[in-house]
Amino acid sequence: MTTSESVKWAELFRKEFLERLTQQPVVYLPMGLCEPHGHIAVLGLDTLKAEYLCEEAARRWGGIVAPAQGYQIHEVGFHAPWLAEVAGNVNTCMTSMPTAPMLYFFLYQLRAFYNAGFKQAIIISGHSGGNQQDFRLAAEAFRQESDMMVHVFSDPELTDGKYTGDHAGKYEISQLLYLRPDCIDLNRIDEWQLDEPETRFAQGEDAPEATAEYGKAIMEDCLAGIQKVLQGNNSAPGVAAPRTLMPYATVEKVWQRVKEQSSQWLTGDLKPDQPPTPDNSIWKPFEKYRV
Fold first, then answer.
1. Half-sphere exposure of residue 45, counting CA atoms within 13 Å on the CB side?
2. How far apart are CA 165 and CA 129, in angstroms?
3. β-pairing verdict for 26-31 and 120-125
4. Which residues contact 117 (CB under 8 A, 6 or more apart)?
5. Mean pLDDT, the chain, integer
6. How many whole angstroms separate alpha carbon 167 and alpha carbon 22?
7. Which of 8, 40, 122, 163 would be a feasible disulfide site paired with 159, CB 3.0-4.6 Å?
8. Is residue 28 within 8 Å of 54, Cβ to Cβ?
9. CA 262 to CA 76: how far, in whole Å?
10. Is 146 exposed, middle or buried (0-12, 13-18, 19+ CB in 10 A)?
11. Does the CA dihedral 66-62-138-44 come out positive or negative?
12. Could you tell me the pLDDT band of residue 290, with boundaries at 50, 70 and 90?
């Protein structure tokens, strides 16, 4: 398996897809979001780092990378007061979605992975803060109806606590400086003051400390975390193959179970001791949206 060979589902012929499936029946789903990261970084930072981790893991250890999911849960629950704090009443140009349609669609993504013959799915979200917990809840509900393992991680979780992550600070800006320096412009470090000076447009205060070297260290640690997952859940080669199609009714049954657990959705509520969204905020109407 050469590093020049494509690892992307969308770029594989069926024969090559089945060969890779047999060698390592693992699918990776990069999950991200377009959201504000100050004016120094592109909006899609979260998606870019998730894509890199999935593609590099597939190149090193096999498997296939599914088309990236560039939409994520945002605006609802605890996100609303956070946006009011870091972005004020500025339109943030996000690819945000409420919880219910995201989890519903996620179940059908898992169905597609199952039907294709994968033994395990590794979902890497470049957007964290708690969203990953709700995707895990949906993944566990799906697992009860299939023999496919599903692992959901935000990128900092892959480092076993070595890095805690941040939002557009030293951690994330370093990641992008390493991966895509063309998507970083540190000369814009103070441009957030042109919007609403008190909000920083979600830029971390320690962003000027970011370096590409630090970003490389983070990403290698994340990749080591993915390798541990693979080593702990190896599937026997030669047994993976496209399955009999899972009925839609099965997914709908799983979705009903997930909806019944909506009181447990972390994204549906404020965090403990988190003040509510100010009444004059553009984000206030989305704070308590659930299903």
1. 31
2. 9
3. parallel
4. 21, 25, 240, 241, 242, 243
5. 93
6. 38
7. 163
8. yes
9. 13
10. middle
11. negative
12. low
Task: Tell me the CATH number for domain 13-281.
Answer: 3.40.50.10310
The token pair at 125 is 């979200």
Q: Quote the CA–CA distance of 221 and 198 in Å, as a whole number.
A: 34
Give the position of tokens 């007061």. Answer: 81
Domain ranges (residues) in the chain: 13-281
Residue 210 CA to residue 171 CA, distance in Å, equals 7
Look up residue 57 and give its two tokens. Answer: 């893991």
Tell how far CA 211 is from the center of its chain: 23
- Per residue in 225-275, pLDDT (tens digit) is 999 999 987 654 445 677 899 999 999 999 999 999 999 999 989 999 999
Q: What is the CA radius of gyration of the chain?
A: 19
The residue type of 229 is: V
